[in-house]
Amino acid sequence: MRALAVVTSSLFDQIEDHNKHLICIDNLEIPLAFIEGSFPEFNEESEQYANFVLVKKTSFSLNYRDLGVIENAWQKLKSAEIDTFYPIGSDFAGHVIAIGKSVSSLSVGDLVIGNCFYPEPENGAMPGIPSNHASKEYEIYHFGKLIKVPPYLSGVEAGALGIGTQTANAMVRKANIKKGDNVLVTSVTSNTSYFLLNALWNLECNVYGLSYSGKNTETVREHFPFIKEIFSVNKKNIPNTILFDAVLDSFSDTYLEYLMPNLNLNARYLTCGIFNQSLDKIKNVKPTNLTLLIANLMMRNISFIGNCLGTTDDLVTGLEFYKTKKLLVDSVFTDENSLSDFVTKSYNLDSDKFGKVIYEYSETEQEAEA
Fold it and tell me: CB of 191 within 8 A of CB of 168?
């Protein structure tokens, strides 16, 4: 069973170059590699697995949150005296290949993705992301943590859209956007913003974008022609005449203070993440005058709304978008490509990515024979 994992240095040295990569997170060089793990035990008749299913992955993708998982895993593994590893990954798609005896909502052969409903439990399953190990080629899930993929989506593209779709549609729902509202999407070239823009496509509002550097924004405008303008933090070119009624922000620690002068009365500021997630970045964060920030929010009746993931309805509604629009995919990698190329493209280290980057699992010779 294959998986992409953080590995100990001793294990890293034993793996061929094609299947390993040193990822730099601040001042750390963390070893990643494709490894062969043990096939999970799954007894379809056992009470222990009555509400669970075994999934064989067709594809997976890496998200920004995986960087934090990678760093945390390395902090635990770097001193290990044995060869060991920690599989990573958040988004996936796969086929159900075995089901527990109490499962009736799924069948063998169903194509599924993770359902990250939050914050309430559903169907006896805990809320949140189903797995931090989604690159594992075979994995066991509670049936309540999975949702069937609509037939208009392939097993490859489905492996990149679960978390982004669920999060973006929850944010747009909570923003309560009205006809004619000025809506700003920050970090407009990021993956999260692609999902946010997809969710805004058919709303009768004025959509603007914001990029920190201002680079690579023309491609975004070509794909999302309804965007009225994309501004740049570096160029400081947001006109004083534009006030935003809703802001959809992937990185609040980067944009919130900067945008305060451009927020309208009764504006809604929604965020789903922070940029400074690594230990090194957190240590070097510039202090914020919290009293002044809250006072500014209060004086203009601005609602600051944090968003973590979304509901099942948010995911189902978001998937319907892909009936008419294809998922924005930059590239698909397989075992013919080097791991370094996949990681470099996933985290846009060459600044040339537009859309999701997906890893597709190819069938092994034994699977093809079966």
Answer: no
DSSP states along 80-98: -SS--EEE--SEEEEEEEE
Token pair for 336: 């013919």
Residues of the chain with pLDDT > 70, as a percent, come to: 96
Residues 6+ apart with CB under 8 A from 344: 21, 350
Token pair 């996936």 is at which residue?
92
Eight-class DSSP state of 181: -
The DSSP result for 259-287, as a single string, is HGGGEEEEEEEEE---S--SHHHHHTPPP
* Nearest by Cα to 123 from 61, 50, 223: 50
Is the peptide bond preceding residue 119 cis, with omega within 30 degrees of 0? Answer: yes
β-bridge partners, 139 = 55
Token representation of residue 137: 């080629």
- Phi–psi pair at 222, nearest 5 degrees: -65, -40
Is 60 exceeded by the pLDDT of residue 281?
yes
CA distance 279 to 277: 7
Beta pairing partners, 2: 36
